[in-house]
């Protein structure tokens, strides 16, 4: 390994999008883990995050921060369980929670997903809003704009040493998002749908083509698949996007790991340290 090189890796603990895919576990829904040197970020830990972390060799006690884009259950169901693992059941007072306000604060329709007990276990809790910037040691994190059914939803952009990673979260396409994604090296897109029909407040394949053509990342990764996307075959959709944009595009699968140089490892990902 080159002197001064900081190991960076992205592991997909799940690629399920819609509630139908999550409830039937046609794809797993444990979220995404970003490792940057000794830092470990767990993004959107949905149902099954603990089991998939164990299966793919991820030590959740090493988690530095948990980031949750919005309050839908397939993004935040296992938040408290991850905090428990990160802190050894509260024995160690450590870790950061960065989440949309809907995850951390009560409203007329719901209670916070993060319990008061688990709030007391962590070192810092940060309610993030669009354009919010947070530094965690050598990584700077920006909250991206999102237009979704949860009005407080955000995406995340990680400025790592020599690499910028962006995760859109659930959102529809907006000019503001296109602007904020510029300069991204590795772009992770939540794409539940293969076409424009029935997309609601989410991205589809056509939107992915627009985003990738505009941003021109070094690599794009599709994830968060709904039933329609699974029926259309995400691998075929990724090939069509790559053909249209000229940008390397991958359809993620459960257990997929990506290294900073674009190397793709297939599950299980144990042993790639």
Strand content: 25-35%
- In order across it, which strands form the biggest sheet? 6-5-4-3-2-1-14-15
What's the N-to-C terminus distance?
11 Å
Number of helices: 10
Work out the number of β strands. 15
What order do the SSEs take from the amino end to the carboxyl end, as H and E?
A: EHEEHEHHEHHEEEEEHEHEHHEEE
Main sheet? 8 strands, mixed
Helical residues, percent? 25-40%
Overall pLDDT score: 91
Structural class: alpha/beta
Uncertain spans: 269-273
Radius of gyration: 17 Å
Q: What general form does the structure show?
A: globular
What does the model show?
The protein has 273 residues and is of the alpha/beta class. The protein is built from ten helices and 15 strands. The protein is 25% helix and 26% strand. The strands form two sheets. It has an eight-stranded mixed β-sheet with strand order 6-5-4-3-2-1-14-15. It has a seven-stranded mixed β-sheet with strand order 7-8-9-10-11-12-13. Helix 8 (205-215) packs parallel to helix 10 (234-245). The radius of gyration is 17 Å and the shape is globular.
What's this entry about, in short?
This protein is 25% helix and 26% strand.
Topology:
Layout: E1 8-14, H1 19-24, E2 29-36, E3 39-43, H2 49-55, E4 65-68, H3 73-76, H4 79-86, E5 96-100, H5 101-104, H6 116-119, E6 124-128, E7 133-136, E8 139-144, E9 155-160, E10 163-167, H7 175-181, E11 186-190, H8 205-215, E12 219-223, H9 227-232, H10 234-245, E13 249-251, E14 257-258, E15 264-265
Parallel strand pairs: 3-4, 4-5, 5-6, 10-11, 11-12, 12-13
Antiparallel strand pairs: 1-2, 1-14, 2-3, 7-8, 8-9, 9-10, 14-15
């Amino acid at each position: 390994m080159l002197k001064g090189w900081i190991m960076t890796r992205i592991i997909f603990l799940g690629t399920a999008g819609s509630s139908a895919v999550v409830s039937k576990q046609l794809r797993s829904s444990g979220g995404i883990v970003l490792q940057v040197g000794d830092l470990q970020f767990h993004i959107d830990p949905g149902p099954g995050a603990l089991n998939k972390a164990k299966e793919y060799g991820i030590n959740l006690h090493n988690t530095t921060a948990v980031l949750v884009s919005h309050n839908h259950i397939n993004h935040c169901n296992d938040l408290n369980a991850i905090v428990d693992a990160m802190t050894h059941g509260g024995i160690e007072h450590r870790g950061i929670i960065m989440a949309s306000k809907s995850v951390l604060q009560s409203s007329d329709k719901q209670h916070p997903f993060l319990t008061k007990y688990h709030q007391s276990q962590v070192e810092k809790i940060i309610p993030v809003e669009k354009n919010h910037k947070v530094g965690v040691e050598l990584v700077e994190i920006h909250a991206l704009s999102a237009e979704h059914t949860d009005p407080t939803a955000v995406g995340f952009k990680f400025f790592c040493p020599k690499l910028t990673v962006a995760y859109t979260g659930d959102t529809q396409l907006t000019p503001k998002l296109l602007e904020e994604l510029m300069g991204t090296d590795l772009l992770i897109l939540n794409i539940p749908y293969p076409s424009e029909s029935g997309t609601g407040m989410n991205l589809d394949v056509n939107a992915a083509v627009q985003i990738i053509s505009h941003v021109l990342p070094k690599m794009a990764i599709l994830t968060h698949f709904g039933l329609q996307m699974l029926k259309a075959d995400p691998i075929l959709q990724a090939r069509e996007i790559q053909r249209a944009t000229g940008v390397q595009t991958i359809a993620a699968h459960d257990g997929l790991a990506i290294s900073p140089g674009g190397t793709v490892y297939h599950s299980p990902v144990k042993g790639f340290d």
